[in-house]
Design a protein that fits this description.
- 2 copies of one chain form a homodimer.
- Chain A is α/β, with parallel strands linked by helices.
- Chain A has one domain: 3-Layer(aba) Sandwich (RbsD-like fold).
- In chain A, strand 3, helix 4 and strand 4 form a beta-alpha-beta unit.
- Chain A has a 6-stranded mixed β-sheet, sandwiched between helices.
- Chain A is globular and about 45 Å long.
- Chains A and B meet through helix 1 and helix 3 of A and helix 1 and helix 3 of B.
């Protein structure tokens, strides 16, 4: 374990997050998602629910602020008008860790295509359905720019 | 995920447990243990505490009843006379999943030598110290023997 880094971020996940660059995306998916099939780089988080994994990742991963949208979630039955409890919990975590950044609900097929093209994917054991989110990595601004 | 198998048992851990035979041992260790250094076969369980991992493993892994002792734990400061809360919680899980089998407190150096020689090791993020346990795998008796 390391000082100041959540223990949930194991060596493999931490290395993947550190290796990602600006604009790279990571999908965090639920326990039923075909992650082994879809992932370009798969990190398993068996036994963990989605919300604590999302929260831990956002403690170290900057969210892209070069683009209007950088946080995306899947939708109940593919319909962006529908929202489940797990999506509300995602919104709470995103509001805390990436204030002001909107969590965009995507149509089913669009979300899955984007998840498949993500740099990496984290397979949780989240039992709730449609509990998937994509984060687009931003930049760490240099010190003295007022944005760090 | 699979029917009747705890989601916490991911594909790698499940495969390791299934591959183990009678008398093979598996150590489940806390977040500070040098598992990468010591393990013959390492399975990571980052973000998980020890007790739920122990409980999930014992839902599918039979404990050896050919020998008088098959469950071993490390001790506070290496002293088997000392017991911490996490050891009491181990005892509760062992009593539930392997009734009648004693959890043996081992002297520090003896425990670590045994853990190093175990077939496999699971590295949890358990924050409490001296929170390590070794399970010796038993047999699945054939149907009709009255022991299955």
């Amino acid at each position: 374990m390391l000082i100041g880094i959540p223990a949930l971020l194991g060596p493999e996940l931490l290395a993947v997050l550190r290796a990602m660059g600006h604009g790279d995306e990571i999908a965090i998916v639920d326990g039923n998602y075909p992650a082994e099939q879809d992932a370009n780089r798969l990190v398993r988080a068996d036994g963990l629910d989605l919300i604590p994994v999302l929260d831990a990742i956002l403690t170290v991963l900057p969210v892209d602020d070069f683009v209007p949208e950088a946080l995306f979630r899947s939708s109940v039955k593919g319909d962006p008008q529908l929202i489940d409890q797990v999506h509300r919990e995602m919104e709470v975590v995103c509001a805390k860790r990436a204030p002001g950044r909107k969590l965009v609900a995507m149509q089913g097929a669009d979300f899955y295509a984007r998840a498949r093209s993500a740099h990496a994917m984290v397979a949780t054991s989240e039992p709730r359905l449609y509990a998937n989110i994509i984060i687009r990595k931003g930049v760490i601004y240099p010190q003295g720019t007022g944005k760090e």
